[in-house]
Specification:
- The complex is a heterodimer of chains A (287) and B (309).
- By secondary structure, chain A is mainly alpha-helical.
- Chain A contains 13 helices and no strands.
- The longest helix of chain A is centred in the N-terminal third of the chain and has 37 residues.
- The two termini of chain A are 26 Å apart.
- In chain B, helix 9 packs across helix 10.
- The chains are: A mainly alpha (287), B mainly alpha (309).
Chain lengths: 287, 309
């Protein structure tokens, strides 16, 4: 019964993520208009349910007369790709360091573990902000910064798991047979960690999307006129006293996407690793 | 216990040095303060003059050593714009940040701990399910959006609370709720799972079997043992809480350290950026040390392990 309900979460989450990904992939087909097309005559039209709303602009227009629905659909491209790329960078770095620290122990472990401690002591967001400011805003720099600041979580978990596996019989046997460390890690240790890593990475995508939006919200991420949810929210904030939907709608897009990813990730965790449900404390602590 | 505290403090000092090194490297190796400060058409002579003035012509290691030595004395340099001491600027803003953080923590814990305990006791009930769904939704919520939605609802539409700034207790309500809502979901889930772990232990079954009342069972045997994971989590969460405070301060124009740092980041006022990043990180390190010590005091097992080690 419980697992069935969990599967339902997984399905709902997958559907929500599916919608966002579909928007990102076929934005030109789905969007009713050009996200960049400005029209001075159509400034600040309210959404269709508002007093002067029309189906021509179902979610209204922004202060430059651009269609909000089209911008939200195109905005999925930025958020999804930023989330996925930032996670790819941080996961790669974090997993490699975790494997090295956990398997080789000694100096490498001491150095990496200490670095993780230092990184985790930082106000993560402030570090990311300072780094983006130092490098200059833009999509590429943002990915680098998010990737470089997001890795310690993976390292901590992968290191702990590797420590467990390095003493297991099959790893000892592989070592006794004379297999090299690289081969053992790749063929015998890593495959056992894949589920944990996938679950962690899927949940991290949501966190990275929120961070990306916040950076863009502050004007340190995606630069105008590129449509991104965070930047739209930041622009809309100025008008929140009179035109609330300008800030509300892009934020809702972020929320729905990250909610979908979290439901999906949580469901995946239970599906891939059922015994962990019983001791979810251990897994939650890694978040 | 004594050796544990000393070892923990040594580790904290190490972390602090690491923090200062990374902050310094970030601003001086990745970024170039001189190019950021001068207009693009500045002459080479201007660049040289500014470098000399800021002490940037020396080698990076010397610069770092000077920075570290000054930082130890509490001197983070002067703001490049107001010429005031960076430390004084940050110090002035610290009470506002601490006020917001504490208020957010109180709101967050006030929501999370009772709900977590109730969910664990009534596992599988409607309350439990609603709490779980709420926690999942809460964890997905971008708090800057939540803050803006609260402003739209309570300040713009209902006109009940001020939208931004600091001063009266009413000003604190929306930011504290926003920050509390950020902290609550994870804390609730951890309280619930911590409590569940405890409630399935043998000593709880034994206590129940020998007829201990449910109330005593829950509070004396249950929550007291569940306090260990909760306190640990709170320490770890403190870093997150400060991160949340950065976002909250920005949305509500709260005059704290984070909004000062953000302004400094925008204007490339790097002494202020350096100072605020290092001081906020120090605060996190300090809280983590205190948490570890508190957990040791709460958990006799760790104390004994230390003694036998």
């Amino acid at each position: 019964m419980r697992s069935l309900r969990r599967l339902r979460f997984l399905a709902v989450g997958a559907a929500m993520v599916g919608v966002a990904v579909t928007c990102a992939v076929i934005a030109p087909v789905l969007a009713p208009g050009d996200p960049y097309a400005q029209s001075v005559g159509d400034r600040l039209i309210p959404p269709v349910w508002g007093a002067d709303g029309s189906w021509k602009h179902p979610l209204g227009t922004d202060p430059l007369g651009r269609d909000i629905l089209s911008r939200i659909i195109y905005g999925a491209r930025i958020s999804i790709s930023a989330g996925a790329l930032a996670v790819a960078v941080s996961m790669l770095l974090g997993v490699i360091m975790g494997l090295v620290a956990g398997y080789f122990r000694g100096t490498a472990d001491a150095a990496i573990s200490n670095l993780v401690d230092v990184m985790l002591a930082f106000p993560f967001l402030l570090l990311a902000l300072a780094a983006v400011a130092a490098l200059g805003p833009g999509f590429g720099n943002m990915i680098v910064v998010l990737g470089l600041t997001g890795w310690p979580i993976y390292t901590r978990v992968v290191r702990a798991e590797t420590l467990k596996f390095r003493e297991r019989e099959f790893v000892l046997a592989a070592r006794a047979l004379g297999l090299g460390s690289f081969r053992i890690l790749r063929a015998h240790v890593l495959p056992n960690l894949v589920n944990t890593i996938i679950v962690m990475a899927s949940l991290e995508v949501a966190r990275m999307i929120i961070l990306e939006s916040f950076l863009s919200f502050l004007g340190l991420g995606i630069q105008p006129p590129t449509p991104s949810w965070g930047a739209m929210l930041g622009e809309g904030r100025v008008y929140m006293l009179t035109h609330w939907w300008l800030a509300a709608l892009p934020g809702a897009a972020i929320f729905v996407t990250t909610l979908g990813i979290n439901l999906f990730g949580d469901g995946l965790r239970d599906l891939l690793d059922p015994h962990r449900v019983l001791s979810s404390a251990a897994s939650a602590r890694t978040e | 216990m004594g050796t544990f505290v000393v070892r923990r403090l040594l580790r904290a000092v190490f972390v602090c040095v690491g923090v200062s090194l990374i902050t310094f490297a970030l601003l001086h190796v990745v970024g170039n303060p001189v190019l950021l400060l001068l207009p693009q058409n500045a002459s080479d002579a201007d660049v040289k003059l500014l470098k000399e003035k800021l002490g940037l012509e020396r080698s990076l290691w010397v610069q770092y050593a000077v920075f570290l030595a000054d930082a130890l004395r509490g001197d983070f340099g002067q703001s490049l714009f107001t010429q005031e001491s960076a430390l004084a600027l940050i110090w002035e803003r610290m009470p506002a940040t601490l006020e917001l953080t504490l208020a957010g923590m109180l709101v967050g814990l006030g929501i999370a701990i009772p709900l977590g305990v109730v969910s664990a006791i009534r596992r599988g009930s409607l309350t439990d399910r609603l709490c779980t769904v709420g926690a999942v939704a809460g964890q997905a919520m971008p708090i800057f959006w939540l803050g803006i939605m609260l402003i739209i609802l309570f300040a713009v539409l209902l006109r009940l609370l001020p939208a931004s700034g600091r001063g009266t207790p009413a000003h604190l309500i929306l930011p504290a709720v926003t920050l509390g809502a950020y902290l609550a979901p994870l804390t609730m889930r951890l309280t619930r799972s911590g409590m569940l772990d405890v409630l399935t232990q043998d000593y709880i079954r034994t206590a129940r079997a020998k007829g201990v009342g449910e109330r005593v069972l829950l509070f004396k045997h249950g929550l007291r043992n569940a306090a260990i994971p909760i306190v640990t989590v709170l320490g770890v969460q403190f870093g997150r809480l400060l991160g949340g405070a950065i976002v909250t301060e920005t949305v509500f124009a709260w005059p704290g350290v984070a909004s000062l740092a953000l302004k400094a980041i925008r204007t490339y006022d790097y002494p202020v950026v350096q100072g605020s990043v290092v001081l906020l990180a120090l605060l996190i390190v300090l809280v983590n040390v205190l948490t570890d010590i508190a957990v040791t005091c709460l958990d006799p097992r760790i104390r004994l392990e230390e003694r036998s080690a």
